[in-house]
Structures are given as structure tokens and as C-alpha cells.
Amino acid sequence: MKAVHESPQAEPRQLQMQKPKFNWKKWLYHLVTGAFALLMLYPILWLLMSSFKESSQVFVTAHSLIPDPFILSNYVQGWEGIAGQSFGTFIKNSLIIVGFSTIGAVISSSLIAYGFARISFKGKAFWFGCMMVSMMLPHEVVMIPQYIIFAKIGWLNSFLPIIVPQFFGHAFFIFLMVQFIRNIPIELDEAARIDGCGRFGIFYKVILPLIVPAMATAAIFSFYWKWEDLINPVLYLNSPEKYPVSLALKLFLDSETASNWGAMFAMSVVSLLPVILIFFLFQKYIVEGISTSGLK
Amino acid sequence: MKLRPAGDNLAGYAFISPFIIGFLAFTIIPMVISLYLSFTSYDLFTTPQWVGLANYIEMFTGDEKYWTTIKVTFTYVLAGVPLRLTFALIVAMLLNRASRMVGIYRTLFYLPSIIGGSVAVAIMWRNIFGNEGTINQILFFMGIDQKIYWYQDPTSALWTLIMLSVWQFGSSMLIFLAGLKNISPEYYEAASVDGANPFQKFFKITLPLLSPIIFFNLVMQTISAFMTFTPAYIISKGEGGPLDGTLLYSLYLFQKAFNFFQMGYASAMAWVMLLIVGLLTLILFKTSKYWVHYESKEG
After folding, report:
1. Chain A residues lying within 8 Å of B9, measured CB to CB
2. How many CB atoms lie within 10 A of CB A202?
3. How confident is the model at residue A125 (pLDDT cuts 50, 70, 90)?
4. Coil/strand/helix, residue B50
5. What is residue B235's three-state secondary structure?
6. Alpha helix segments (H runs only) across chain A
7. Which one-letter DSSP state was computed for residue B6?
8. Which of A23, A144, A184 to mutate to test the interface with B (most CBs of B within 10 A)?
9. pLDDT above 70: percentage of residues in chain A
């Protein structure tokens, strides 16, 4: 890189002058990087702007990002929903699924992580190994029997098959929290023990408050995965009044024949709003989670 | 001094018991059932019929669609994952500098991988590459009058899926960026003193020091790419078309199980998938000693 940009006349001043020499390089850098970033974002912008266009205009003016005329009726129409359900119902369903799954996954994972990180017991290495392997296991291998089991116990067309498994720990989150707990000085545990805390007391009073950042990271990722999850709702939910947002969008897509693009795009935007909002609010935790444990 | 965690079997098992119960109930028992079903013919409503290896034999010798899905999935994985990681590395190197704007760029590049798995984005992608979609209109404005019918040709349809996957390079980029920040500037200074050019610096310093992280990403991304479902399901409206061009393995397995109720056959497919993923991981691990460079402390 450097060699390319060094212009001959800049060389004599190299030692004392920094600003004039670096300026155009900097501009070039920001021009290239910024343009590339915009290119990456273009599809999202296009979706957003199309949601303000008339359905008949979306593809006629697909090259333009400016809606003409600018309308909001797509949102009104989309919010009326599909299959006799208002879009609010789908959002409510998504929130129930996401809320319970996330609470279950975070609490159970933190208990399990404490066990792995702080207590030495027979067979620990074995169970830890099981957990690591289960991170790499394709879901397809257990999908069919799980479906059969949940069908046999009468859980089909309910949220239970999606929520309940989350209460038994999530391998990625356990791993993340184990890493986190290992960095907490063990002297804190000892001090609490001397003060008369039992195992659970140490976990609840000492460890739990200190792993809040890791729990936040886990909660955010649990939110993303469950909000965007499609295959489980497709498998387990079959009446539209129980559909979460992801599956409702699929309904919009299936009724595309009416070419009501506007409403579909508008509700797609609505479905992305919470995700993007959380992303901007909690970016710090997300970046940390990814950089330290490779969460996606 | 009692600074080591005291051995306590009962407490240990009490804390990890949710994991053990969940692992048995939602992983081990289903896996055993799945293995058994793979040797049966089962439609969910009648009792499973033992058919021995018939499902596996049918898969490899009778089912042409199966070979299509293998071809499609391997193309998707072998093209998508390296492209995605290459992009991630290039952009991470671009962002590895001190500038106020870097934080903003990082956010913008990362955003697609946060929303990329959603139905909304799959719908968006489907429409951008549509016959009247943005891409064709932009091509038209650039003077290319020839429309590309992305979703009428199996190959180009698959490439839209690959592009969607590459578009989400952000999470790998973040990991690479964290890795780049850990490389001591002294290495580069020493190389400069020795007169190394940027290419030499990249191949002799950056790449070797980053190789453990690249390796980790390669393994995880390969596994997850193999299991991709949502974009193929949405973009092809559940069909895997045109001409099975986007029939990713997960999608075909899903169709077999829940559209045709061939639970035995689908279970056999799941086990072959597990073997393929396991084998790919093993190959990556076996070859890693030739190209992954571990510093003495890491390992």
C-alpha cells in the first residue's frame, strides 16, 4: 500500500511534515471504504425506500431510491396483516417466543457455566466435551425425532417445542460464560465462602453480578436467533394466529400473486426494526461476544 | 490455602444437570431414534418398517435429486465460505487503522450479518435479483440492455444465494479485526527495516499470525454453511428451483421429511450429512498442521 502512494515530491519532507502528505491518501481511503460500505448497505436502503413506494411503482422505479410519490399506506395495509390476523398478533407471538426462550437460555446457561468453571467433579471433562461437540452438531440430525416426540406428547401447534429446549442451556452461551467466569478471581469466591455463602450463594451473590456483560451478549444473540428463526415455526406452528413475524412474512410472500409488494416490504422493514435497534443500542456487547467466542 | 475449586461431585452435577437432562432428551435420545429410523420406512402415521440399508442405497444409486443437492450444496459451501472469508480479511485489514470513522465503517459492514439470516432479507434479496429488480435496472442504466434472468437459470440462482452469504462477511471481519489488533507492530517495523514489501509483510507476518483465527472461522463457517436453510427456502419459495438449482441439502431433507413424509429416508440423509460435516471438519483439522501457525503460548 505504502509504496504505491508515495509521490516523489513528498519524499524530501517526509520527516517533518505529516499532514499535507497524508491528506489525499486519507481521502482516498475514506472514499473507497465509504463507497464500499454504501454498496453493502444499498440493498437495505432499497428495501426501506421501496416500502414507501406504491406497489405498482416498486419495480418500475427499482433503480431509484427516492419514492415518488412518498406514501405511508403500505404500513397501514401491512399492519392489517394477513390470513385474518393483524401484524400486531405476529409481533406479540414473536415477543412471547423470544422472551421466554431468552430468559430460559440465559439463566440455565449461567448455572451450567458456573458448574463447569468453578466446581471440579468427576466426569467434568466428559460433559464439557459433550457440550463442545453439541455446538457443531447439525440440527437436522435431531430435528425429525424431536418433531416425532413433540407430536406424541401433543405439543404441536404450540410454542412449547420452540421454548422449552432453551431452558436446558445453550452450548454457545455456556462456552461464552465459562470463559468469562474463568477470568473472575477465585479469591472472591473464597471470601464469600468465609462469609458463610454456600455454592448457590456464591453463584448468586458473587458470580452472577459479575457476568452480566456475558449474559447481555447471550441475551442479544438469543434474541436474534429466535426472532429470525424460521424452521422451527414452520415445523411446529400451523395456525396463523400463532405465527411469529418470520413465518408471517412467508405468508406475505406466498400471496405475492396479488403483487402487493408495498405491504410486504413495509412489514419486512418492521420485522427488521427491533433487530437493528438492539444492534445499535448494544453494539459493544455484540462486538465483544463475536470477538471472544466467534458467535455469529 | 484453599484457592482451588473444591471437589464436590454433588454440587457440580446439580449445577450442570440442566445441560445433562437437555443433552440426553434433545440430543442423544433423538440421535439414537434418528439412527434407527434411517434403517426404516416411516411416514409418521404407521409403524416404522425395517428396511435395512435400503434408504442409503436409494440415496446413492437411485435418487438423482440427491446427487443434485450434493452438487448444489458443495458449490454453495466451497464457493461461499472462501469468498466470505476473503472479503472479511480484506475489509478487516482496511479497517485496521486508527481513525474516528473506523467504528462507523465497522458497524456498517457488520450490519448485514446481523440481519442476514432473516426472512425479510431473503425477501429483499429475491426482489433485488428479480427480472425487473434493481440489479437488472442498474445494468440497464449502465448501458447493458441484456436482462439477466437470475432465477430462471439454476446456476445464477445458486449464485444469488452465494452472494447473499458473502454479503454477510461482517462477523468474520470482526473476529479478524480483533486478531489483527493483537499482532504486535514490532513485527512490521522489523520487516520494514529489512526492506520487506507489503506483499511479503502480508504473506510472512499477517497471514501466519492470523492463521489460527482463519482456521477457526473456516471450520465454523463451513459447518453452518452446510446447514443453510432459510434463504433457499424463502428465495425459491420452498421448491429449491429452478431445476433444483437452489436445492440445498437442508431444504431437500426438509422436503423429504415434511412434504413427502419419508421420515426414514430423511433421517438417513441427516446421518450422511453428519458424516460429511464430520469428515470435512476432520480434513480441515488434518491439513491444519501444514498451514496453521500456532504461537508457542497458544494451542
Report:
1. 121-122
2. 20
3. very high
4. strand
5. helix
6. 2-5, 19-50, 55-58, 73-79, 87-118, 124-136, 140-152, 160-163, 171-182, 186-194, 199-201, 208-210, 212-228, 231-236, 245-254, 261-281, 283-293
7. P
8. A144
9. 89
Domain at B74, CATH number? 1.10.3720.10
Q: How many residues does chain A have?
A: 296
Query: Residues B14-45: pLDDT tens digits?
Result: 999 999 999 999 999 999 999 999 999 898 88
Judge whether A155 is closer than 8 Å to chain B, CB to CB: no
- Among residues A223, A274, B116, A141, the alpha carbon closest in space to that of A215 is found at A223
Neighbours of A145 (CB within 10 A): 22
Domain count, chain B: 1
Q: Residues near A8 by Cβ (< 8 Å), separated by ≥ 6?
A: none
The nearest CA of chain B is from the CA of A186 a distance in Å of 7
Cβ within 8 Å of residue A177, ≥6 positions away? A109, A110, A113, A114, A117, A211, A214, A215, A218
- Average model confidence (pLDDT) across chain A: 84
Q: How far apart are CA B95 and CA B176, in angstroms?
A: 10
C-alpha cell at A236: 411446529
Strand boundaries in chain B, DSSP class E: 40-41, 49-50
Q: Report, as an integer, the average pLDDT of A47-67.
A: 79
| Eight-state DSSP code of residue B25 | I
pLDDT at A130 over 60: yes
Least CB-CB distance to B118: which of A46, A246, A280? A246
Coil, helix or strand at residue B93: helix
Whether residue B122 lies inside any domain: the answer is: yes
B248-296, pLDDT tens digit by residue?
999 999 999 999 999 999 999 999 999 998 898 888 888 888 878 776 5
In a domain, B245, yes or no: yes
Radius of gyration of chain A (CA): 26
B53 lies in some domain = no
A residues 234-253 lying closer than 8 A (beta carbon) to B:
234-235, 245-247, 249-250, 252-253
Domain that holds residue B88: 64-291
ipTM for the predicted complex comes to 0.84
Q: Residue B166 and residue B199: Cα distance in Å, rounded?
A: 24
Which residue, among A26, A37, A291, has the nearest Cα to B106 in the 3D structure? A37
- All structural domains of chain A with their residue ranges: 2-78, 83-293
| pTM for the whole structure | 0.85
In angstroms, rounded to a whole number, what is the distance separating the alpha carbons of residues B147 and B128? 13
Express each pLDDT in A32-50 by its tens digit: 888 988 888 888 988 898 8
Instruction: Count the neighbouring beta carbons within 10 Å of the beta carbon of residue A134.
Output: 20
Q: Among all chains, which residue has been given the C-alpha cell 404450540?
A: A158
Q: Is the pLDDT of residue B133 over 80?
A: no
CATH code of the domain made up of A83-293:
1.10.3720.10
Question: Does a structural domain hold residue B94?
Answer: yes
Tens digits of per-residue pLDDT, B52-96? Answer: 898 999 999 988 899 999 999 999 999 999 999 999 999 998 888
